[in-house]
Amino acid sequence: MIISIVAGGPVALLPDLNVYREKTSIWVGVDRGVYTLMHHDIVPDAAFGDFDSVTEAELADIKETLNHLEIYPTEKDETDLEIAFNWALSKHPEEIYVFGATGGRMDHFIGNLQLLLKKPLLEQKNNLNISIVDKQNLISFKTPGTYSLEAMNDKKYVSFLPISKEIKGITLEGFKYPLTNHVLPLGSTQCISNELISQCGNFSFTDGILMVIRSSD
């Protein structure tokens, strides 16, 4: 099962959602992201938020169209996106895409990134893949292990950024700038803007938390 969540970030930063139509099992709208989905002719299977970013007429349209709509007070301990994200996790999907989570307020963006760093996710032993995606970037976090990356025509750059104190044993194979059993300390920019030199590359590390960003110019 693949769940795609659309939050209320700037529409101009969204990728082409049509690319994700066939692969998505469940569409989830968050606040104004619900209306964004409806304008893309996608009726969300579930929707969450306080809906303070839509007009009364838009909210009426949302209520009339959706079967699963959960409205929350504006003052609460979780953001609308976190509520939707936790709901998606409860469905035990194999993959989650989060759209509309970048741009706009920086505190919202950093908070959205940190959703992917929830302790249960970092401790998991399954193959759940979670990505924040916009028109220019695809962001994910990885715990120790070995991973493969396929070349992407629209996002040729691959950056590896340490989130923990250091990344131990990082090895990059099939990249323009390879590494072997390297230590990457927090604050290092050494692994920014790498590129695959073949259709598929591998990276691995033994300790730490790594942010992987695939980008285009």
From TrEMBL:
CDD domains documented for this protein: TPK (cd07995)
Q: Name one Pfam family in it.
A: TPK_B1_binding
Q: Which InterPro entries does the record match to this protein?
A: Thi_PPkinase, Thiamin_PyroPKinase_B1-bd, TPK, TPK_B1-bd_sf, TPK_catalytic, TPK_catalytic_sf
Please verify whether the record's keywords include Signal: no
Molecular functions per Gene Ontology: ATP binding; kinase activity; thiamine binding; thiamine diphosphokinase activity
Q: EC number(s) of the enzyme?
A: 2.7.6.2
GO terms, biological process:
thiamine diphosphate biosynthetic process; thiamine metabolic process
- In this chain the Thiamin pyrophosphokinase thiamin-binding domain maps to 145-211
* Record keywords: ATP-binding, Kinase, Nucleotide-binding, Transferase
Q: What is this protein called?
A: Thiamine diphosphokinase
